[in-house]
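Hi W., the pantoate complex you wanted:
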Amino acid sequence: MQIIESPQEMRNIVKSWRCAGEEIGYIPTMGALHAGHMALVEAARAANQRVVASIFVNPLQFGPHEDLDKYPRPIERDSQLLKEAGCDILFAPKVDAIYDGEEFTHGIHTYVEVNKLGDMWEGAVRPGHLRGVATVLVRFFNIVPAQRAYFGEKDYQQLKVVERVVQDLRYDLEIVPVATVREEDGLALSSRNVYLSEAERQVAPTLHQALQVGVTLVRNGEREVSTIGAAIQAVCDASQLIKVQYVAIVNAETLAPLDTLDGQPARALIAARLGSTRLIDNIAI
Ligand code: PAF
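Structure:
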């Protein structure tokens, strides 16, 4: 596996692969890789001749009081995992290769912002976060002109925002969603799970259990969103360590809140704080 820092070099290699008729699968990450990321690599490996993963802890998607500085950066371990998974290239640019120096002092030149879809839920709790994600991803999509890019369903709103950006900006890029990978007890894998204390880690699977309670209600015929939402919330509220930020039952495409389930695909979203750690999860409902 080659490790490349230079955007120009990265772009040239992908272009040469494309000229040779090869298909490229791309996995953007912020590193601190876990089995969820490896599922993305596996999916990319299965459908493309070439696989590129990037590691870039994107300052633009962190709020002023968030964990940018303490975000884990185990680069040696990450590159070993990617190599073993059959990745062809790890693209690991420095911050100043992606952002001009002046952008962090004078302001970002060009933002990509998705109205409505990017304003609700995560967009409301973490202002600027999804704009930061969309902005960095278009830069990466231009540096790594792959045919397919892989995203986990764990960050469901991020996935929908990226799909929207790719559609609206007419990228010739297929966004491939990959199912959330979970610990045996149901906790969705996340690079931030390492922040959880022992007690918090014990109750963290409650988020998934609560979502499953919602699914069971729906299977048993419940259609009132307020009833389903209240049941999900109650499961979480039973633990003093879990502070729910939102429970939302939404249209699976627009993420607009629903009043009743009408047979259209819907998704239950949840975000909660466990101490200083923020967890999100979701489920098809
Ligand atoms: O999900 C992530 O790890 C990040 O938001 C992403 C997609 C790599 C953009 O920085």
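The first strand starts at residue 2 and ends at 4.

W.
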